[in-house]
Amino acid sequence: MTAPGRRRTTAHVLANASFRRLWTAMSVCSLGDWLNILALTALAGNLTAGDDYRVQSLAIGGVFIAKMLPAVLLGPLAGVFADRFDRRTTMVAADLARFAVVLSIPLIGSYQWIIIATLLVECANLFWVPAKDATVPNLVPNEQLESANRLNLLVTYGSAPVAALLFAALSLAGDVLTTVVPGMAGVDPTSLALVVNACAYLVSAGLIFTLRGLPRRDGGISTPSVLRQIVEGWRYVGGNRLVRGLIIGMLGAFAAGGAVVGVAKIYVAALGGGDAAYGVVFGAVFVGMALGMFFGLRLLRELSRRRLFGLAITVAGLVLVAIALIHNLAIVVMLTVVLGACAGIAWIIGYTLIGLEVEDAMRGRTFAFLQSTARVTLLLVVAAANPLAALFGAHSFALGRVSYQFDGSNLVLVLGGALAVGVGLLALRHMDDRKGVPLSEDLIAAVRGERFGPGAAEELPGLFVAFEGGEGSGKTTQSRMIAIWLRDQGHDVVQTREPGSTKVGMRLRAILLDAAERGLSPRAEALMYAADRAEHVEKVIHPALRRGAIVVCDRYVDSSLAYQGAGRDLAPEDVSKVNAWATGGLVPHLTVLIDVPPSVGLTRLGGAADRIEAEPLDFHERVRKEFRALAAATPERYLVVDGTLPPEKITQTIQDRMRDILPDPVPRETEDATGTMPVIRD
Ligand SMILES: Nc1ncnc2c1ncn2[C@@H]1O[C@H](COP(=O)(O)OP(=O)(O)O)[C@@H](O)[C@H]1O
Ligand SMILES: Cc1cn([C@H]2C[C@H](O)[C@@H](COP(=O)(O)OP(=O)(O)O)O2)c(=O)[nH]c1=O
């Protein structure tokens, strides 16, 4: 429903001629920015090509640091200055300055000048970006701002692979030119990329100069300090388990990415690749990211998002380690695409989950926190990567006759990979919403396109305990005893049963258990039990769990799996799917299975047999077998008790098991409140 609507607003934003012009300028600038990173790091590597491995690593690291330092140190300051000047003049001046500085780099051609020029270009960026951000709301009505921001984001990152491929092509052209044209022999092949980069800024200046509809003076834009955003954001993020997991995962992925970006140039050089190969590897990351965002999510649509998040980061780490160890450029490029895909999956899930799970008022701050910490993480990692690689130096190991090269860049990549694996596993553990279900099982089901089984009630504050077993096994007796015991301890307890605990449920129960109702089809029967359950979860169980109560339920999903799945011989996956849908994936924290042979249970029952009780003995045998198989599949979620024992003994066993999972009967907040009450004397 939202997609067509979205497309319409996007189209609308671009129909605005002024915005289109600004957006084109932004796109051209982004392309120039990415070309700039690639060309300058490549040039730094080329200028120090004859030097020691260490010198080369440090030279490239220096460029990255020069690129990021101004934003971190002077960002907020520049935002304030940008507010005081006319925005069009600011942007045009910044563009012309960038044009001149970038053009001077190939003309001067010294490493020191690369660093100074980078710092200057970044300082100009500090004025250009806030002026541009502040201009967008002047050109676009409020309701289209979001689409405008989305388009902005699209060109910022979408231009990266284009720039990488352009850089590869320009490097090749540069190589050809320097060999063919006699006067150009001493010129670095990256010069061509830098000239194109400079021209991009010139084009942007022209576009912005001719922009109509800009007010001369402006309102205020303020960029809060990076440090303040981090401190404020942590206050919220630190307290929320899910968001904490997400942020740790995303930052870990970022740090691993930083390791790749930092050492890519020297690593590719060590593999015998030139500037063009560097461009291809760089582009491969982004191509992979785009593929991951579009196809990865579709392919594994049925896997729990949270699991996929941790899994993607872990796999990214493993792939990174493989990249570090395999010395073959073609394989490295292919693995880099996979790496990018995993990163893309993790990034988009992280963003979506934060969007979904973080309350509205905190969302902006959470994103700001994420962006600030990501920037600082990237700076630290890129800054540390090259010196670390330099420190380790280049080593060659002899394994028999074969010699194996292991340099500082390999070490940095292995460390980056190990970090991602660690963080990915941490995220998997931290955020798992399907505890007890093996990941492999979920993955196989997801690849086959099967909807994953139900998730647990973990996110809700209450406790959900189900009682299962055959006819006359003693569920009703035991659930009553346990409810009384829990209430005695001060817990809020909701004792309920299936089928028939809601208004609609009672009518369904009448049909389901009426012995006169002959020939009800198995599918209809399964759907009616599921309908009763859907109503029960929505009206009774979920609200109780949400308010923190303990729900003691006589029969739940397992009864359908056993009676309709095994007893009636319906496909268990179908029954499972229908029920997962009906319950919204709600699984009990604990299921108590009271196991008795049907021959015993059925003889305990008094009165006339209902429609199900009247089934033959082998039906009940199948039911019992299925209950036991379900318990054996995830033993940590089950307690199986022998129902032929005396009732008190059974109650005792259940109580012992439940003590481990019972919450504090007096809620913590209440305790805190009573703890601060003034003491009443006399
Ligand atoms: N452990 C037990 N040993 C013997 N009889 C029992 C035991 N538990 C329950 N009963 C009796 O068996 C009958 C069925 O018990 P009930 O709790 O209604 O089972 P269910 O709800 O599983 O059908 C009742 O008459 C009850 O008193
Ligand atoms: C909840 C549920 C119950 N049933 C059957 C089992 C029981 O025979 C009957 C429930 O009847 P009930 O009188 O509640 O029996 P019990 O005391 O044994 O729980 O419905 C199913 O077949 N599928 C289900 O999903």
UniProtKB/TrEMBL annotation:
The chain crosses the membrane at residues 21-45, 57-82, 151-172, 192-211, 245-270, 276-296, 308-326, 332-356, 376-398, 410-428. GO terms for cellular component: plasma membrane. The gene is tmk. Residues 662-671 have a biased composition (Basic and acidic residues). Its main location: membrane. This is Thymidylate kinase. Phosphorylation of dTMP to form dTDP in both de novo and salvage pathways of dTTP synthesis. Belongs to the thymidylate kinase family. It is an enzyme of class 2 (transferase). Residues 467-654 form the Thymidylate kinase-like domain. It comes from Nonomuraea muscovyensis. It comes from the Bacteria. PANTHER family: INTEGRAL MEMBRANE EFFLUX PROTEIN-RELATED, MAJOR FACILITATOR SUPERFAMILY ASSOCIATED DOMAIN-CONTAINING PROTEIN. Its EC number is 2.7.4.9. InterPro entries: MFS_trans_sf, P-loop_NTPase, Thymidylate_kin-like_dom, Thymidylate_kin_CS, Thymidylate_kinase, TM_effector. It catalyses: dTMP + ATP = dTDP + ADP. Keywords: ATP-binding, Cell membrane, Kinase, Membrane, Nucleotide biosynthesis, Nucleotide-binding, Transferase, Transmembrane, Transmembrane helix, Transport. ATP binds at residues 469-476.
